[in-house]
Amino acid sequence: MRILVVEDERLLADAIAEWLRREAFAVDVAYDGDAALERLGVNDYDVVVLDRDLPVVHGDDVCRAIVEGGAETRVMMLTAAAAVRDRVAGLALGADDYLIKPFALVELSARVHALIRRARPAAPPKLTRGGLVVDPARHEVYRDGRHVALSRKEFAVLAELMRAGGAVVSAEELLERAWDEHIDPFTNVVRVTVMKLRRKLGEPQIVETVPGVGYQIR
What we know:
Blueprint: E1 2-6, H1 10-21, E2 26-30, H2 33-42, E3 47-51, H3 59-68, E4 74-79, H4 84-92, E5 97-100, H5 105-119, E6 127-129, E7 132-135, E8 140-143, E9 146-147, H6 152-163, H7 171-178, H8 189-201, E10 207-210, E11 214-217
Parallel strand pairs: 1-2, 1-3, 3-4, 4-5
Antiparallel strand pairs: 6-7, 7-8, 8-9, 10-11
């Protein structure tokens, strides 16, 4: 799941991004509205955490561009303005949620999770296939009752494969969904992550390679 954080206060933007990355999200950061529009033009995002008062291009204009583009991206606006009329104006632009500064990062992440549930088809709290159980809320994985400790990226890749319900997911799709924009598109990081994932999940192998296409959960 991929998120764009747009905030001109760099320390705050970086703090939000790091917090969300700890929850296995792929997070990109933009420090002004123009940079945000540039990233939105080349990447698909599940959620945009958008400061309203941005330099270069105002946050309102970024929000309008997202809504008018017809994407399923959810927008959570951040603002220091606490007046009801300001919140109403932000929601009228098409924002899905509104969070007033200062805020707790734990509340922000809870709201992001809620927006993602709205952006995607309803899914069960736990993803199961065969003897494999993935709990996205707790970031826990079990195979045949045995707890499997995974890194954040291993968990993100496994969750995407499980959400596919047995369909094949390409390496490019995994790269886009589990890593941020700074990853080298020619890297073999997906192959290496899948290799580690298989080793930790144990035998018999449950992550299958479909030559020339991608990966799937049997």
